[in-house]
Structure formats: structure tokens, C-alpha cells
Amino acid sequence: MALDRQTQLRRLSDVDQLITNAETTVTKQIRTVDELRRDGHDTSDAEATLKAFEDTVQSLRQLRQQIINTIEQIDKGLA
Questions:
Q1: Domain extents for the chain?
Q2: Residue in 27, 1, 3 with CA at minimum distance from that of residue 19
Q3: What is the tens place of the pLDDT at every residue in 13-69?
Q4: What per-residue confidence (pLDDT) applies to 78?
Q5: For residue 35, what pLDDT is reported?
Q6: What are phi and psi of 27, to 5 degrees?
Q7: How much is the pTM?
Q8: How far is Cα 43 from Cα 35, in angstroms, rounded to an integer?
Q9: How far is CA 7 from CA 3, 36, 60, 69, in A?
Q10: How far is CA 75 from CA 18, 58, 63, in A?
Q11: Which of 7, 31, 56, 79 is positioned for an S-S bond with 2, CB 3.0–4.6 A?
């Protein structure tokens, strides 16, 4: 992994876009679960999919924080 600031800023931008896309997907899946429930359908699979999407968002947020921490270390001259 490159520890130069520009590379980390690009990674941060990429992860921010992934988070935005993943949050949109979560929102859509919530609607799907709601519609299935409203129409009296089984929501187990849709809810499991929603959980997986939410876990992905959480993982991306953790990665984002790691990148920010790396940038801070670079700025302090420690990386």
C-alpha cells in the first residue's frame, strides 16, 4: 500500500463514492422489504440481503476511517 498523501486522498475519494452508492442500495432494499411486507410476502431473504448491504456500508466506513488515520499519520510525518 502506497503511503503517499495523494494516493490516500484518491483512495478516500473512491471509498466515499462506494459509501454513497452502498447507502443508496440500502435505501432501495429497505423499500423492497417494506413493499414485500406490505403485500404480505415473506421478507426473510430480502432482510438478509439488507443486513449484508448494511454490513458492507459499515465495512466501508471503517476503511474510510483507516484511510483518514493514514492521511493524518502522513501529515504528522509518521508514515
A1: 5-75
A2: 27
A3: 999 999 999 999 999 999 999 999 999 999 999 999 999 999 999 999 999 999 999
A4: 87
A5: 98
A6: -60, -45
A7: 0.90
A8: 9
A9: 7, 43, 17, 14
A10: 25, 26, 18
A11: 7
